[in-house]
Amino acid sequence: MSPTQDAVVIAIDGGGSKTDVMLVDASGAILGRTRGPGASPQTVGMEKGLGVFEQLVIEVVEQAGLPPTRPYGTHLAAYLAGADLPIEEEELSRELTARGWSESTVVGNDTFALLRAGTTDGVGVAVVCGAGINCVGVAEDGRVHRFPALGKISGDWGGGYQLGSEALWWAVRAADGRGPQTALLPAVVEHFGAKDVFEVVERLHFESLPRDVIHELCPLLFRVAAAGDEVAAGVVKQLVDEIGTLVATTVRKLDMSEEAPVIVLGGGVMTGVSRDVIDVIERQCVEVAPRAEVRVVDIAPVVGAALLGLDAIGASTTAKARLRMSAVTTLVPAGVVGEDPDSLVNGSAPGEPDSVGKRAESFGAS
Questions:
Q1: Can you tell me the distance from the alpha carbon of 22 to that of 12, in angstroms, rounded to the nearest whole number?
Q2: Which residues on neighbouring strands pair with residue 78, listed in sequence order?
Q3: What's the 3-state SS for 126-178?
Q4: Rounded Cα distance, 37 and 14, in Å
Q5: How many Å apart are CA 223 and CA 190, to the nearest integer?
Q6: Which residues form the ATPase BadF/BadG/BcrA/BcrD type domain (predicted)?
Q7: Helix, coil or strand: residue 201
Q8: By the number of CB atoms within 10 A of the CB, which of 45, 50, 111, 260 ranks highest?
Q9: How would you label 263-292 residue by residue, b for 16+ Cβ within 10 Å and e otherwise?
């Protein structure tokens, strides 16, 4: 069924550090877009998180010149960091539906938005490595494989905070003699303008430095590794191996090894690393699926949420192509990193038509 001409999709990308909201009509035209602070309900609480979402939705509705009466749109596509378990998605869906912003609502994890942004049909494997790390896979027949992605308690390793913490950990141990010498030590001290690394630790302990600054050490880690430091390079190798393991596990669970799956890499860490790092990840991916195509997608994830919304209302392939042409950044070939992971930059759309199928989902199994 084709959507009505006045159908409107409200797309939300609720990340850990920022929230993007976009309004798109059935033709694929962007009616408005706004950004606010990170407001994952799992992090800031349901009431506060939904309050931020509502403020941004109202703002973008006003920006688009739409009537200020509910429902504001036809369909709400909300893809949120922290919506990791089905029970969380169901609770968020109930809460968002109760707000009356739209006639229908779908809530999912933001990794699905990345996968949709990097493919023409939402089929393949996506690994997001930003503040945290997560991986999802969707097979041609709709089967879904995903991980709980709850941090260390669910077996996860990686993400910007984890990598920054590792950089600090190795720097401290180099300073006090428990670990090998590493160029991470002077780099961390210089980064914070401290007299030594113990001053950094003390400031973190007494919260004169917020813990969030540990994220800042992630790009520092990659720079030190690229300069040849063995300790830093070891941490980067661990991340690469972890991404390779996530992809390999998902590909095997979904029986994609003999196919040509699209492997989508995204998130601030992935769009900020060197070509050499991406090349190693690509080699690991093709070991499990020789015909795999690896893409680093430098795109605002809200575009993926909007595409999923257009799928849900039955929008045409022309509408989806229009959205891509006006909002999407380049689908970057493996090893080539985009320049601005936080912006919308004009780029080309994939040549195949956009489509999406039904999905049967499970954790840890196909």
A1: 7
A2: 12, 107
A3: EEEECCCEEEEEECCCCEEEECCCCCHHHCCCCCHHHHHHHHHHHHHHHHHCC
A4: 9
A5: 14
A6: 12-309
A7: helix
A8: 111
A9: bbbbbbbbbbbeeebbebbbebbeebbeeb
- Global pTM reads 0.87
Query: Which 3 state secondary structure label does DSSP give 195?
Result: coil
Ordered alpha helix ranges (H), the chain: 41-44, 46-64, 86-99, 110-118, 160-176, 184-192, 197-205, 217-226, 230-253, 275-288, 301-313, 317-327
Distance CA 10, CA 105 (A): 9
Answer yes or no: are the C-beta atoms of 161 and 210 closer than 8 Å.
no
Counting the structural domains of the chain, the total is: 1
Asked if residue 308 is part of any domain, the answer here is no
- Report whether 66 contacts 72 (CB < 8 A): yes
H/E element, 106? strand 102-109
Asked if residue 220 belongs to a domain, the reply is yes
Which element (helix H / strand E) includes 196? none
Average pLDDT over residues 245-253: 98
> Do the domain assignments include residue 212?
yes
**Alpha-carbon span 341 to 269, nearest angstrom:** 9
Closest by CA position to 149, among listed 364, 365, 366? 364
Residue 281, pLDDT > 70, answer yes
By residue range, what is the domain housing residue 217? 160-235
Which H or E element spans position 349? none
Q: Would you say residue 15 lies in a domain?
A: no
- Residue 262, number of CB atoms within 10 A of its CB: 22
CA distance 65 to 8: 13
Q: What is the pLDDT of residues 41-100, one digit of tens each?
A: 878 889 999 999 999 999 999 999 999 999 999 999 999 988 988 899 999 999 999 999
CA atoms within 13 A on the CB side of 242: 20
Give the containing element (helix H, strand E) for 333. strand 331-333
Q: Is the peptide bond before 71 cis (omega within 30 degrees of 0)?
A: yes
